[in-house]
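Hello Y.,

Per our agreement to keep a running log of every chain we model this quarter, I'm adding this entry. I've kept the format consistent with earlier entries: sequence first, then predicted structure.
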Amino acid sequence: MVNTTATEVGAMNNNSSNKLPLPLPLVSLNHVSLVCRSLESSLAFYRNVLGFVPIRRPGSFGFDGAWLFNFGIGVHLLQAEDPANMPAKKAEINPKDNHISFTCESMETVQRRLKEMGIRYVQRRVEEGGIYVDQLFFHDPDGFMIEVCTCDNLPVIPLLDAPQHAVCKRALAAPPAVAVPQPDPSSPAPAPVPSPLPQQQHCVAEVVVVDVANGNMSAMTAMACPEA
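Predicted structure for the entry above:
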């Protein structure tokens, strides 16, 4: 056993409180990555239910997967190598479980769309100082929980004793644009899909993309959200 004197303890306390290391120089949350039993089922869910847009994925990857993007964040899906040995899908929707959360424009519309799609959900309401936050929780095809809420109703108030409180701020800049190829007019029209859940507003603009290496020029659609 190592004996530590009171002087040494005091020195350690002073060092930990006054000379905290600087946090990592992060900029933003880029993506969440999820392992799925069926890449096809998960891709359909995040595309048709949540409104994410498939984007190009590095061709050098030696495993199956898909990348999607919208609302300033990416979702990376990975096909499980052994789906049969993945944990069983959770039957209970537990709001205290791990989850990712999205804000929405209309909670009533979200509820109606979930009912139309036959997706089971649980509803919660939080009250804080007269401010109400509505929450809906539901599962993706693998049982990973999704929340849709009105959490933006609550102000972001850093704790005064937090070392980084002076630099804590909510990002207001628009997310980066993502080029999404338009469908080939000569191809058969895709089957209709249900309207995705309403999230933060986004706009669509056509741009021209030039492939310098191959000398190709093509029309693309850029997904971007306007600044608030």
